[in-house]
Design goal:
With about 60 residues, the protein is mostly beta strands. It is built from 1 helix and 2 strands. The model has no long low-confidence stretch (mean pLDDT about 85).
């Protein structure tokens, strides 16, 4: 049996993405002054677990 080289348990990652997109410096500045900013949550990972054993290959593909 191979030894475990990497072990990840129950990892999660959520991003706050602003609903208003700004393409100018002025728009970014005005958005900072607003109190009611709209954000949506994007859950990139939710309770992901995995193990990589010695001698195995591991890769991440972003689609």
């Amino acid at each position: 049996m191979s030894k475990i080289a990497i072990s990840v348990q129950n990892i999660s990652k959520t991003f706050k993405i602003p609903k208003e997109k700004n393409s100018t410096l002025r728009g970014d500045f005005v958005n900072v002054l607003k109190k009611n900013k709209g954000y949506e949550r994007f859950e990139a990972l939710s309770n992901v677990s995995f193990e990589v054993r010695k001698g195995e290959f591991f890769g991440i593909i972003n689609l």
